[in-house]
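R.M. (postdoc): so does anyone remember the format we settled on? I'll just put the structure tokens first.
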């Protein structure tokens, strides 16, 4: 008699069947009950999928399988984020052209995704480096250009000397390139920007309606950085320097004014005797990244311009300094320095011997040390003595507005999105530069503007396309005269800022997406990916969605309704598993043990949202669990007499079903818990619940007399509950139970809440907070009955020892605590 077994051959068998029957093809006719599941798509910048990929994609696939069995029409498309630095750097390292290396990697990784057993509908594959995709990224650029949301200007930018390209602010982490981790520097260049700041308020306000982790929403909130404050004008002869502050209550403590080295007024305000020193300082500051300049660990430095401004309320002369701890991109690029009430100003004043004048004290009274940076009460003859900081901000702003030397203002930390890259492997920007006509868009009918193949793509500080004369030279689309194409390429985040709109219409060559169809499909119901993209991809995708909505293409406000972040699988040194860290390939594990053993191990061994340190010690234990599941099924159908594997439950899981919980109640409790756990991405506890159910089934099967009806229901539902987590194994077991194809077309099991109601409950009894006993009471017992039962327990009587009970604290369903005099 055949005994059910599981191996890698089982995977291959069912994967072939799924592909032949197109089991996971999206049926658009059922879009009314759609569930759009999407993971942040993979970079094909390495040869293989590694453990980190399996961690993300296999477990989110389990969530999608649950939704499918719950009756949803799940849309789960695959894709590859194939342009950008990772793929180009891989090509440089390997010496293979990025087009060839990327295609080879996609083919190999696509095959590995198939071995994972995902529910991907490969008919909706999107690859961003294909002209069929990037023509629509170019179309998007042109739509933004038409609306004034794409523009070109010279600006100080973050430059990575190692990658030889510009980086967006979001791609600089602690002064280092987020890709190569090399130090960055500031450089002035003419670049293309997207005007994301136009949507700053909506991007901030829209966070409230999103089912996103609070930490992620806070990151975006801080990155947008909306503040309410006051612009203060400091007169200088026939002009004025304007500073922005959120602490105008400290205005009477201003003792100097500071300009950023890049401030446009620096040259005009620098007197001849100070010019050389200021220019040297500007050059020095230009070599530092913004993060390095504002670091609290860095000693403050600066140089005097020789000029003075007037205090707007007293007329007092204030020296004007240049210092790199002030940034041109923040506020107005000028700071009213209050060294008594600001850490940076205080350190600067101490170094250069500038006055420190306190004007705010603690509401609790004198004695605080300087700098005192909290709100407080004004003092010191400010003209507003006795006012709180909040009151003073309102009063002083009004007085400045009345004098014409200030105004209430709102500022943002968010800066426009820099999208130019001086790299080869990216979407060409569809603009032609004509001396007579200016920046002229490539006609839509000529898209895609193809990326030429025969280009020297090794980085040299210039755009590689600039050296490709056949690409650069082109007639102006407007006047026909000789002109030059734009040679920068688009930031790869442009490709991923709208890709979720393309999957459904991935083969339509007439439009980027069908508005009617995409408005029915969107938003993405569950989006899964790393928190490292909180201030980049997630913010950019929200901006593009809102811009396309305002152009009339979309009828929704947000792209991702619900978001889950996976934790990181770490190597022995505590580093995130990645291609750069030399992550472990799972191929050998999968071949030896099967994809479902590996999926179950990942799900059981780690918390999805927390991650943890990788080791493969638990693989064999999970394999034993799979064997026991197979034996339980065979035992039920009569292949063997009972679970004779020889492994005790404690070999894998040290919990067990409560002794008072019958098999039927255990089945319903497991269904409830596993449903909630998979839906909440708590795969480890979901698998633990199924292990408990298996233990209950095994005990039941060991009895001389078995209830075949209860046993059959429990075995059947165990297989159904395993289906999202171990899809190949579940197919095999479903077949062994005599059922037709496919287990993944079955309805998710339901539980009866009435069966889960217990008649009796176990309560801990404490005396002065120390556990002294356990009692069983009816679940509907009132406080008096619980007290009476507890006081009758011999162990509790002994612990009280005749002393008087001052009060009894009852926590329903958990405990009673007696507090003694």
């Amino acid at each position: 008699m055949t005994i059910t077994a599981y191996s890698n051959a089982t995977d291959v068998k069912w994967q072939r069947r799924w592909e032949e029957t197109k089991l996971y093809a999206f049926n658009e006719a059922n879009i009314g009950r759609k569930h759009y599941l999407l993971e942040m798509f993979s970079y094909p910048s390495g040869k293989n999928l590694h453990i980190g990929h399996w961690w993300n994609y296999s477990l989110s696939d389990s969530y999608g399988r649950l939704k499918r069995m719950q009756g949803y029409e799940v849309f789960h498309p695959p894709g590859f984020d194939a342009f950008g630095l990772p793929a180009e750097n891989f090509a440089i390292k390997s010496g293979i052209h990025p087009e060839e290396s990327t295609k080879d990697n996609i083919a190999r990784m696509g095959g590995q995704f198939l071995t994972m057993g995902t529910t991907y509908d490969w008919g909706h594959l999107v690859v961003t480096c294909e002209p069929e995709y990037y023509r629509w990224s170019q179309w998007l650029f042109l739509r933004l250009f038409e609306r004034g949301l794409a523009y070109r200007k010279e600006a100080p930018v973050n430059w990575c000397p190692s990658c030889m390209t510009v980086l967006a602010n979001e791609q600089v982490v602690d002064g280092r390139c987020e890709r190569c981790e090399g130090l960055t520097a500031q450089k002035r260049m003419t670049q293309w920007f997207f005007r994301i700041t136009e949507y700053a308020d909506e991007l901030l306000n829209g966070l409230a309606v999103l089912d996103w982790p609070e930490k992620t929403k806070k990151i975006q909130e801080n990155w947008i950085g909306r503040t309410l404050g006051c612009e203060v004008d400091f007169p200088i002869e026939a002009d004025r320097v304007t500073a922005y502050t959120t602490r105008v209550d400290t205005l009477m403590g201003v003792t100097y004014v500071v300009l950023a080295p890049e401030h446009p007024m620096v040259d005009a305000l620098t007197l001849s005797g100070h010019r050389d020193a200021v220019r040297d300082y500007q050059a020095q500051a230009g070599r530092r990244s913004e993060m390095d300049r504002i670091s609290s660990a860095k000693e403050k430095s600066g140089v005097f311009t020789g000029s003075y401004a007037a205090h707007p309320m007293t007329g007092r002369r204030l020296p004007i300094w240049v210092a790199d701890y002030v940034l041109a991109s923040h506020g107005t690029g000028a700071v009213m320095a209050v060294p008594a009430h600001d850490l940076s100003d205080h350190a600067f004043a101490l170094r250069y011997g500038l006055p420190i004048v306190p004007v705010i004290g603690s509401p609790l009274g004198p004695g605080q040390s300087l700098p005192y940076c909290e709100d407080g009460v004004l003092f010191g003859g400010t003209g507003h003595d006795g006012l709180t900081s909040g009151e003073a901000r309102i009063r002083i702003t009004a007085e400045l507005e009345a004098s014409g030397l200030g105004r209430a203002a709102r500022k943002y930390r968010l800066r426009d999105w820099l999208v130019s890259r001086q790299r080869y492997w990216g979407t060409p920007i569809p603009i032609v530069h004509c001396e007579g006509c200016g920046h002229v868009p490539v006609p839509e009918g000529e898209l895609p503007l193809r990326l030429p193949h025969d280009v020297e793509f090794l980085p040299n500080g210039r755009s590689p396309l600039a050296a490709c004369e056949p690409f650069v030279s082109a007639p102006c689309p407007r006047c026909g005269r000789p002109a030059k194409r734009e040679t920068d390429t688009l930031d790869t985040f442009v490709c991923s800022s709208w890709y979720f709109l393309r999957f459904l219409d991935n083969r339509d060559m007439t439009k980027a997406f069908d508005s009617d169809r995409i408005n029915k499909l969107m938003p993405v119901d569950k989006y899964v990916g790393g928190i490292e993209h909180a201030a980049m991809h997630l913010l950019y995708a929200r901006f593009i969605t809102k811009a396309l909505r305002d152009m009339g293409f979309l009828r929704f406000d947000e792209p991702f309704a619900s978001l889950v972040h996976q934790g990181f699988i770490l190597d022995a040194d505590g580093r995130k598993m990645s291609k750069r860290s030399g992550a472990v390939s799972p191929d050998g594990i999968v071949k030896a043990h099967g994809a479902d053993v590996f999926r179950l191990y990942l799900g059981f061994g780690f918390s999805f949202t927390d991650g943890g340190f990788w080791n493969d010690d638990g693989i064999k234990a999970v394999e034993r669990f799979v064997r026991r599941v197979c034996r339980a099924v065979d035992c039920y159908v009569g292949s063997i007499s009972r679970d004779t594997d020889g492994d005790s439950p404690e070999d894998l899981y040290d919990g067990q079903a409560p002794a008072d919980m019958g098999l039927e109640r255990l089945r319903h409790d497991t269904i409830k818990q596993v449903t909630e756990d998979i839906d909440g991405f708590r795969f480890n506890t979901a698998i633990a619940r199924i292990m408990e159910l298996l233990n209950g089934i095994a005990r039941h099967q060991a009895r001389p007399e078995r209830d075949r009806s209860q046993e059959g229901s429990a075995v059947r539902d165990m297989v159904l509950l395993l289906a999202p987590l171990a899809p190949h194994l579940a197919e095999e077991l479903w077949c062994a139970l005599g059922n037709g194809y496919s287990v993944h077309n079955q309805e998710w099991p339901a539980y009866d809440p009435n069966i889960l109601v217990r008649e009796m409950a176990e309560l801990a009894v404490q005396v002065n907070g120390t556990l002294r006993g356990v009692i069983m009471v009816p679940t509907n017992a009132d406080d008096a009955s619980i007290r009476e039962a507890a006081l009758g327990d011999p162990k509790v009587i002994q612990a009280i020892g005749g002393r008087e009970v001052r009060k009894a604290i009852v926590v329903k369903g958990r405990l009673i605590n007696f507090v003694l005099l």
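R.M.: ...and that's the designed sequence above, right after the tokens. Also worth knowing: Confidence is low (pLDDT under 50) at residues 643-660. The first helix runs from residue 8 to 21.
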